[in-house]
């Protein structure tokens, strides 16, 4: 059944609100989000598809405020009896809860932005269409061992509350994450897009294979502070942790965040914007607040953190549209961060993903900034697989090119000191050229300090949209050249 947000999901939300009125009286307040979600995943390992899974379901989230007490609940049984049982459970829980003097009230009737355009072909893609991308990836790695996934997702959601406010939206997305392996060395390529048609498995496979071949036979370097160029996959980890621990209204109120609005905490080159409507995002949050672009850092100065209605009321600024089902525990946080630097000539209209062809291959073939693999230019060779990253590396006298960060853990939330490991390729750069692969490092670094005033030496012209593990979450991550990154030992240390 192809259910859209203008149909049955909105009707279900209205039904639940009416049930609350009938069972708890007109003074009870209620808000409901009904979401139809489809997620399909095609996994591959050892260079062949080994699993195709898909799930589809409708979920209902209800929050009630009755007699000064607040409770929330959820369910997936959308029959009349199932909805009635959900309402009764939520009202019974509210009677047992302590008073809620900080209840911010429901979202009043207010305009909600139009949902971004969504691609029906992506929403209802067949397994064979994802498998085609996998085959193209495997063919492009040229005999190397390949593993990863291709996924497609679809969400139709509707909101209603007892003030009469309602909202609806539909979103679709696709993503691919793959590695190529040879001689114990891995190369990675990841991309999140709004249309499955924009996932070029061959281009991603060629990218991963070029990096894997260039990562063979690494040497060991001593720990220390090195100038680095972090590729988009690595930068995505910075954005994820900034969102979770830094620009989070609840953590900021609890003084667990580094964010200080009004303070120049970052290099003037850095601007951070959370922009759900720039991609496949829903136009409202779970409280029905319209979502719009929110600037968090403007030319190095922190200017805002994300809020839901409760944290926004406490801060005296209102909601920024970042309520989520988990906000009471984890806090309201950005989920679609875009990092950008100063505007450069010729950047207008640049695509939201970096070219997949090789930098040297493109320029040798006379290609521009398009996708080299799609336009017939030679496959990428060496670790530099896009011109935006290559331009940053060219300015480095001696340092490291880092593909990816993983297994990152927070040591101190206030300063956001994080430890983790590099993976999927590290290279020593001398005279602007990667000269050889380097063994993986463990690092311990304060992410805000690493991007602090004077620390950012360059930001890539284009972002490569990186998928998160969670549906509907992505990071627009360009490559970054930083003055120093603290490597504390080998990956096994």
List the helices and strands and how they pair.
Elements: H1 8-24, E1 29-45, E2 48-66, E3 69-75, H2 80-96, H3 120-123, H4 127-140, E4 145-161, E5 166-182, E6 185-193, H5 201-214, E7 224-230, H6 232-246, H7 249-253, E8 271-274, E9 294-298, E10 301-302, H8 309-315, H9 327-330, E11 336-340, H10 359-364, H11 387-394, E12 398-412, E13 417-430, E14 433-438, E15 441-446, H12 447-450, E16 456-467, E17 474-490
Parallel strand pairs: 7-12, 11-17
Antiparallel strand pairs: 1-2, 1-4, 2-3, 4-5, 5-6, 7-17, 8-9, 8-11, 9-10, 12-13, 13-14, 13-15, 15-17, 16-17
Helix pairs in contact: 1-2, 4-5
Explain how this protein is built:
The chain is α+β, with helices and mostly antiparallel strands. 23% of the residues lie in helices and 36% in strands. It contains 12 helices and 17 strands. The chain has helices spanning 8-24, 80-96, 120-123, 127-140, 201-214, 232-246, 249-253, 309-315, 327-330, 359-364, 387-394, 447-450; strands spanning 29-45, 48-66, 69-75, 145-161, 166-182, 185-193, 224-230, 271-274, 294-298, 301-302, 336-340, 398-412, 417-430, 433-438, 441-446, 456-467, 474-490. The strands form 2 sheets. A 6-stranded antiparallel β-sheet has the order 3-2-1-4-5-6. A hairpin with a 4-residue loop joins strand 4 and strand 5. Helix 1 packs across helix 2 and helix 4 runs parallel beside helix 5 (201-214). The protein is globular and about 75 Å long. The termini are far apart.
């Amino acid at each position: 059944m192809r259910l859209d947000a203008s149909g049955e999901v909105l009707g279900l939300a209205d039904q639940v609100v009416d049930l609350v009125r009938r069972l708890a009286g007109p003074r009870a307040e209620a808000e409901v989000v009904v979401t139809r979600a489809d997620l399909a995943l095609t996994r591959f390992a050892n260079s062949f598809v080994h699993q195709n899974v898909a799930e589809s379901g409708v979920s209902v989230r209800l929050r009630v405020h009755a007699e000064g007490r607040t409770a929330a609940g959820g369910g997936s049984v959308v029959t009349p009896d199932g909805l009635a049982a959900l309402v009764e459970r939520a009202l019974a829980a509210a009677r047992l809860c302590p008073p809620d003097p900080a209840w911010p009230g429901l979202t009043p009737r207010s305009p909600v932005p139009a949902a971004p355009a969504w691609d029906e072909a992506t929403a209802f893609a067949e397994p064979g269409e994802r498998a085609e991308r996998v085959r193209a990836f495997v063919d492009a790695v040229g005999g190397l061992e390949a593993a990863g996934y291709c996924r497609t997702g679809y969400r139709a959601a509707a909101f209603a509350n007892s003030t009469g406010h309602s909202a609806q939206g539909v979103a679709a997305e696709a993503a691919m994450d793959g590695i190529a392996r040879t001689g114990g060395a891995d190369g990675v390529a990841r991309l999140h897009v709004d249309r499955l048609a924009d996932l070029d498995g061959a281009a991603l496979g060629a990218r991963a294979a070029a990096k894997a071949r260039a990562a063979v036979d690494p040497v060991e370097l001593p720990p220390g502070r090195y100038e680095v160029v972090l590729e988009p996959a690595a930068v995505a980890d910075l954005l994820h942790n900034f969102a979770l621990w830094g620009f989070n209204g609840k953590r900021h109120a609890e003084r667990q965040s580094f964010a200080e609005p009004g303070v120049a905490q970052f290099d003037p080159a850095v601007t951070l914007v959370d922009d759900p409507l720039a991609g496949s995002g829903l136009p409202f949050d779970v409280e029905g607040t319209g979502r719009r672009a929110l600037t968090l850092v403007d030319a190095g100065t922190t200017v805002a953190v994300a809020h839901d209605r409760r944290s926004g009321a406490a801060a005296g600024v209102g909601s920024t549209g970042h309520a989520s089902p988990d906000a009471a525990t984890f806090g309201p946080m950005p989920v679609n961060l875009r990092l950008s630097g100063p505007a450069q000539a010729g950047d207008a209209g640049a695509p939201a993903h970096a070219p997949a062809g090789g930098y040297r291959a493109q320029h040798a073939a006379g290609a521009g900034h398009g996708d080299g693999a799609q336009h017939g230019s030679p496959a990428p060779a060496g670790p530099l697989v896009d011109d935006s990253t290559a331009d940053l590396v060219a300015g480095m006298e001696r340092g490291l090119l880092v593909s990816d960060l993983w297994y990152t853990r927070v040591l101190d939330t206030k300063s956001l000191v994080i430890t983790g490991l590099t993976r999927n390729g590290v290279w020593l750069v001398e005279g602007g050229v990667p000269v050889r692969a380097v063994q993986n490092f463990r690092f311990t670094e304060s992410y805000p300090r690493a991007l602090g005033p004077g620390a950012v030496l360059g930001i890539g012209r284009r972002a490569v949209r990186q998928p998160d593990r969670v549906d509907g979450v992505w990071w627009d991550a360009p490559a970054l050249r930083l003055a120093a990154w603290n490597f504390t030992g080998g990956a096994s240390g």
